[in-house]
Input
Amino acid sequence: MLDKVEISKKLIDFESRFGRSGKIDVCFAPGRVNLIGEHTDYNGGLVLPFAIQQGTYMLVRPSVLPPARLYSDQLGLEARIMTPDVTKKNDWADYVRGVYLYAGETVCGEIPPFDAMYFGDLPLDSGLSSSASLEMATVLGLGSLGCRLSKEEAVKVCRRAENDFVGVACGVMDQFAVAFARERNVILLDCDTLEYRQIPYNLKDTVLVVGHTGVRRSLTDSEYNERRRECAEALSLLSARVGPRKNLSRLTIKEFEEARWSIPDTLALRAQHVIYENVRVEEAARCLETGDPETLGYLLNRSHESLRDLFEVSSFELDTLQEISAAQPGVWGCRMTGAGFGGCVISLIKKDALERYLGRVPGLYWQSTHCDAGFVVTTPGEGAMEVEVL
Output
């Protein structure tokens, strides 16, 4: 999180832009990293996410007349929410408009006009759930306008904003993790039932390093929705052989292996990743509980190979950063995290190897890709919250 001095400077910027006319509320929602369990969320499977310290801030204050005025400090762009007809504009503020629309429709009714400024230290389009962070910060900001949602309501509204308004067919993991995360805990979440439990992060003498490849990605412009379609088709064909299943993750490995030859090769590869990845999540949760970084690192490496070779959502930059990281002394394991097509790699590293890793990997990566990677050392952090600034 940013310190209070930095936030106070943003309050001055807010008043310079929107005027001085009342109390400004400050809300924060973190980004998230998924330790393991990629593309299992929309297949009704298990995931193991946690919140990071970096995230999105929203400064918000009620205004007198519509429209709601928005400003992204990171992008340097203004936007509006025109009422009563809230329509998609295909810009950054669609995530905000979607939350505003569905929070009003499902919970709050009419929401008063407001001024809002967004800023933060979370890289955009990086696979760290910048969109869910933006959405959840907006939910908290609407609370200061009299539209207060429970965490469960917030997750539903934010997911609907992303699915139905923006048009990204994501699962529920990102919004859930941003809302329910606890400091020093990782969430084991069943994305079908939404049953979850907090697992303490008890890996001694280890750190998590998130490396951004320097390549941004956009799910609306990628093959993400195509992968969802392929998974749905695989489920339909496999269910005809093994019996009805609600989700692809509900097939056992034995059932899949006996039926895989009855479906097209590409669909079999997609299903194989999802079904085996779901098992890896269960095993990874046990590693956290027993304090076993070696086995967890092995699972991270296998997850990346599966995403690269079976699900085909990696990229040259992701593979390069993963391979360079995996070859470093003291690295237990690493994999791409997020939906793919660019973004980040997460590495599990021995504490005493961290300095050497950070000293070597950026240069080796640049030599191979001519891209500048950014690295963040992180631990599981707290979920979305209101911030007091004295």
Notes: Residues 305 and 335 are 8 Å apart (CA to CA). DSSP finds eleven helices and 13 strands in the chain. The domain at 4-200+382-387 is CATH 3.30.230.10 (Ribosomal Protein S5; domain 2).
